Structures are given as structure tokens and as C-alpha cells.
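Action item from last meeting closed. Structure (90 res):
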């Protein structure tokens, strides 16, 4: 799997997990550039989520200034959903 394919796979999987949590999102796959996942926020804004290769691991940074490892999409979805809903991290 190429890095671009892995990036798409991670973000599509994250979108699916967010959907299970009733959080809307959409994946963009531009003709040039990298895949981005946009997550709809409760206030009408959106979070941008990337998938970044960091050595042997993948990270999922998002526009709230946070990131999470890409190896646990359920945990990542919970954290991003909380941020999108405007909830404070415990």
C-alpha cells in the first residue's frame, strides 16, 4: 500500500467511526495534493483532519491543535467527535 493509499484508508475509516457517533464528515481527494477529512462541528465550523506518516507510525492531527495516533480509529473518533461537539477534554 502506498502512503497515499494508507492516508486515504485511515481517513475513510475515521469518517466511518465518526458516522457511528453521529458526527458528519466528508473526505476530499484532490487531483493534486493529499486527502483531507473535514468534520462538521456543532457551531457550524469544520475541523480539518490529516493523516501524517511519522516513521513507522501514522498520526492524525486536526485543526484544533491536537493529534492522536492513527492505530486506534475508535479512540481518534471519540477525541475528534468531542472536539467537534465543543466538549472539553477530561
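Sequence:
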Amino acid at each position: 500500500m502506498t502512503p497515499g493509499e494508507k492516508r486515504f484508508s485511515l481517513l475513510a475509516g475515521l469518517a466511518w467511526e465518526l458516522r457511528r457517533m453521529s458526527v458528519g464528515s466528508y473526505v476530499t481527494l484532490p487531483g493534486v495534493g493529499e486527502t483531507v477529512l473535514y468534520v462538521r462541528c456543532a457551531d457550524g465550523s469544520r475541523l480539518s483532519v490529516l493523516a501524517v506518516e511519522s516513521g513507522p507510525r501514522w498520526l492524525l492531527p486536526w485543526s484544533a491543535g491536537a493529534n492522536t495516533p492513527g492505530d486506534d480509529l475508535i479512540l481518534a473518533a471519540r477525541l475528534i467527535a468531542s472536539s467537534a461537539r465543543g466538549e472539553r477534554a477530561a
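Note appended to the action item: The mean pLDDT is 93.
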